[in-house]
Design goal:
Length: about 150
Amino acid sequence: MNLGGPHYFFVFFVFLWLGVNLGVAQLSGWGELSRCYRSGDPFEGRKWKFRRGQMRLLMKYNNCLTIGANSQGLYLAVFFLFRIGHPRLLVPWQDISVTTGKTLFWKWIEFRFRQAPSVWLRIYGSLADEVRLTAGPFWPGERNQMKDRV
């Protein structure tokens, strides 16, 4: 029996891929968010694809996030190759609190979620401003982290 054949490698790779995606989803908090905010409906609103964000435990989603905004809330999805453990989410604006700040040269916005208080998502730069403008009057109130430190 040859355990080094290509089909064994393929099976190993698939299980590794599934395990890593499920692990990242749990560590980052996406799994917790999905228990509260899973969305099965098509999203109607403005979307930004292939963006980056950071979640708890310094889990980074680099160039694989789709972030959307409309009057109902904040939409989050990942590129289909990474979707295992990462269902699409739609978080109502009333369940979101926002903190703004700056790290060296980059402005960021951090979203916190009422039904999953240990989870946060941070997005950087002009994307944060675009999401805010798209949400319009539905945008939650902000706290500025720099002001809070003083």
